[in-house]
Amino acid sequence: MGRPVTSRLERWLAPAVPLARLAVVRRLLALFVLADIALLTADVVPHAKGPDELYQPLLLRRALDLPAPGPAYVEGLAAVLVVAALVVAVGRLPRLAGAVLAVAFLDWVSIAFSYGKIDHDHFALVVGLFAVATVGPAGLRDPRTSAAAGFALRAVQVACVATYFLSAVAKVRFGGWGWATGATFAWAMSRRGTQLGDVLAQFPWLLRAGQWGVLVMEALTPALLFVRARWQAVGATVLVGFHLATWAATRIHFLPLVVCLAAFLPLERIVPAVTGLRRRRATPRRAADASRPAAAGAPACGPPRA
Amino acid sequence: MDLPLTRRALLWRGVALAAVTAGAAYGSLRGVDDHWPFAPMSQFAFRTDPDGEVRAAFVMAVDARGDRRELALTNETVGMNRAEVEGQLEGFRSRPERLAALADAWAALHPDRPRLVRVELLERVTRMRGGRLLDPVQEPVAAWGAP
Fold first, then answer.
1. pLDDT in tens, A26-54
2. Which of B42, B50, B24 is nearest to A155 (CA)?
3. Is the ipTM, as predicted for this complex, more than 0.90?
4. Which residue pairs from B70-76 have beta carbons closer than 8 angstroms and sit at least 24 positions apart in sequence?
5. Alpha-carbon distance values, A60 to A33, A159, A258 (Å)
6. CB contact set of B141 (below 8 Å; sequence gap of 6+)
7. What counts of helices (H) and strands (E) characterise chain B?
8. Residue A254 contacts by C-beta under 8 Å, 6 or more apart in sequence?
9. Origin, by domain of life (chain B) (predicted)?
10. For residue B132, what is the nearest residue in chain A, using CA coordinates?
11. Is A153 exposed, middle or buried (0-12, 13-18, 19+ CB in 10 A)?
């Protein structure tokens, strides 16, 4: 009875997904890389101009025997990233430019994390860039279903879920089972609190309840890999809400991870919706098609549909 | 399915994803930061004692004109951000002369501004009681003066 189990696993691993959905996510990730290197990991450039002494290369860089990055190297790398990201974003050479983008971004982020601190918000994005590069050409309006696209999006989903679930694992590993009864949120508010954070810090019980909520939420995220599309969208929206709240209280944003949550949404509906709205002389049939994605794109705002 | 994958194409994809996932799991169960991208997802994973304290590093600097002020610990000011400085805090404590690197970075990033002649690294320590934050105090870590 191996055959049916295998095909069920195959359907999970590489579900039939419209190429258009992959096309949207791929462009989104590529464009996000531009924002990332300009804003989030921009430190790479001033780091490279600073003293080599502060550079403490990660195992990955030592294993590959990569040199301490100087200004010329990181500026060249930035140029490669920009070109590759733009080529992917316009839909050209998706495998080649996508692979260059993924490798160059891994290089870039590993430099950024070689100065004494790493962040775990980049894992899903790095995995995601490699994953979307495994799919050939995909148009924004290509309705054909593809197993390759299904796998790539599944891989992004797995990387997102791994980030959340393993955050809960790490909390138990480092903080013990009593992590949620500690004062980690108060610690965060003290170090990086916004005005909202300062207010919240006056209610230790509220912060403790929040810690329980986060731990339980993170531990439950693997369910997102097995539920229906509607609940995936709901789950992704809840997670975005969590990140918004965290950002409001501490200015910690996890944006590279948030962007990857797009892999949980039926984004192939966006392009027809946008163009449908633009075309005033849409036929009634097209207008009906266009209204559906608008609701699905913002699942938190509309009532759940059966 | 309009565009299926062959068995082989699916197999290597599945193996690759399983390997990456296993690496991430290893990172959080047994790994350390150095193993990134297979590092533990450990941001905010440490339990903080509700009756303990919160420490935050900051830097006071004196420039060639004699002005003494707090410098924001960011890559734009001194080439390192606060978390990075804190990650190397014990290194600065045992070898205060390493603070010269911050002054050098400042000079490289601000060629038009007066150079720093003294850099003091301190920690702001906020005690907690029952998870409530009390008033902070300052503790010196290391200081460097231009020779």
1. 999 999 999 999 999 998 998 888 777 78
2. B24
3. no
4. B71/B106, B75/A42, B75/A43, B75/A46, B75/A47, B76/A46, B76/B109
5. 21, 19, 25
6. B57, B89, B92, B93, B121, B122, B123
7. 5, 4
8. A121, A243, A246
9. Bacteria
10. A204
11. buried
Q: Is B43 on the interface with A (CB under 8 A)?
A: yes
Assign A285 a pLDDT band (cuts: 50, 70, 90): low
- For chain A, domain boundaries: 2-265
Task: Answer positive or negative: Cα dihedral of A77, A81, A87, A92.
Answer: positive
User: Inter-chain contact A186–B40, Cβ cutoff 8 Å?
Assistant: no
> Number of Cβ pairs closer than 8 Å across A and B?
204
What is the pLDDT at residue B34?
A: 95
CA B24 to chain CA centroid, nearest Å:
22
Asked whether the beta carbons of residue B56 and residue A190 sit closer than 8 angstroms, the reply is yes
What was the pLDDT predicted at A115?
Answer: 85
Could you give the angle at which helices A19-35 and A94-112 cross, rounded to 10 degrees?
40
Average pLDDT value for residue range A233-249: 95
A91: exposed, middle or buried (C-beta count within 10 Å: 0-12, 13-18, 19+)?
middle
Work out the minimum CA distance from A204 to partner chain B, whole angstroms.
5
